[in-house]
Design goal:
Elements: H1 2-6, H2 11-15, H3 18-27, H4 31-50, H5 62-79, E1 87-89, H6 106-117, E2 124-125, E3 130-131, H7 136-146, E4 150-154, H8 157-169, E5 173-177, E6 183-184, E7 188-189, H9 190-197, E8 200-204, H10 212-218, E9 223-229, H11 245-253, E10 259-265, H12 283-289, E11 293-297, E12 308-312, H13 314-322, H14 325-328, H15 333-347, H16 350-353, H17 357-363, H18 366-383, E13 387-396, E14 408-417, H19 422-431, E15 436-438, E16 440-442, E17 445-449, H20 455-467
Parallel strand pairs: 1-15, 5-8, 5-9, 9-10, 10-11
Antiparallel strand pairs: 2-3, 4-12, 6-7, 11-12, 13-14, 14-17, 16-17
Length: 468
Amino acid sequence: MKEWLRSIPAVHELQNHEQFESLLKENNLDAAQLTKQLKETLDQIRSLLLIKDWYGATPGTNQFIDEVFQLLRGNIKKQFSYTLEKVINATGTILHTNLGRARLSDNAIHHVVETAQNYSNLEYKLNEGERGSRHSHVEALLKEITGAEAAMVVNNNAAAVYLVLRALAENKEVIVSRGQLVEIGGSFRISSIMEESGAKLVEVGTTNKTHLYDYEKALNSETAIVMKVHTSNFKVIGFTKSVETEDLIRLTQGAEDVIFYEDLGSGALFDFRKYGIGDEPVVREVLEMGADLVTFSGDKLLGGPQAGIIAGKKKIIDTLKKHQLARVVRVDKMTLAALEGTLIDYARGEHGVHNIPTIRDLLVSIDILDERTKRFVTNLLQGTEHFQAKVFPGTSQVGGGTMPDVQLPTLVISLKHHTLTAEQVGRKLRTQYKPAIVGRIQKDEFIIDLRTVTEEEEQFLLKALLQL
């Protein structure tokens, strides 16, 4: 062992090797950076030798030097490869949180690239030649689409909720139904965020039943907000009762200095109910009822980037914009560009919204899915004898904690490989292909739902399966 360790070439010897020079050119590295990588690779080999886990060539041979550089090449590739990478989502879950939620539209992507590559008027008024506000870029669009008097954007909906409570209800009371004290992904609890904000939570009603008189009895001179949380990520079914938004608005309008605020969560700017999909309230409707303030996400049903949007009465929004926390939770130019690109499609009306992938995938017809699915299976079976494939009715999920009770009718492809298990098929597709492919596994069958696969991705998916 000592002889092997002594036989490992010195760093300066390997620096003079032709393969060292090749790696410098291949990877556009400077000598100091590559030397650092080389030292780490040699340390890695020494560690493997000491624990008797080295199965390469014997140190001191030319073959060993080749293996050093081969290992070094792999380490360089690993260090300088992106960890955030494209994935083909063949699960059928449209807003798949683990896979990045909403896919951006072409308009949004183009606007992000243009904004990122160049200087922009992020906080500059071109006509006046003076400092401007980043809030202005999407506010006009949000006002047009939602009917709000004013609007602002922060980095996510949790931040929006926190800013509202901190700025408008610190050391004051906020009334919330017990049935709406939700927890969403990442252990984000309404009750906890309220405690952090300095607002005092006043719970009314019970888990399954809350009446208007529960809110009426809780109102007092310390009440700052009556808050309603739209329970978009779960449903209580059975013996239930909740108070309608209109009733809570009337209640707060009759009280002095009390705001009605509804956290809509999913942010539906489009009425999916017209297509028989779910019962999500449309943001414009809630504001037209008279809500003082609403908050919602940008990357759920809206179909844009991660963002938290606050819309409502101008006087209240102005207060929020001036609060010190507004800077802490503000968004960057690329998020604003992606959101502006998405909102412009909404402003174009019914035709424009179909450019937004989230809406397009939610509304795709079963006839189109039937045609695509059957064509895919025919092409697969004509190209390989290694799979058994069948098509059967299934359901897609909206995902992202949105519309949990909605099951979208779809057609899925069930694949069974002659020699590989479904787990092995899934692992190979995830790890051996760029982009990686993620599907579902059910009863030792690999399941594909083309609802969330574009036609371009469909061709790559077919090619990958044929190679298996």
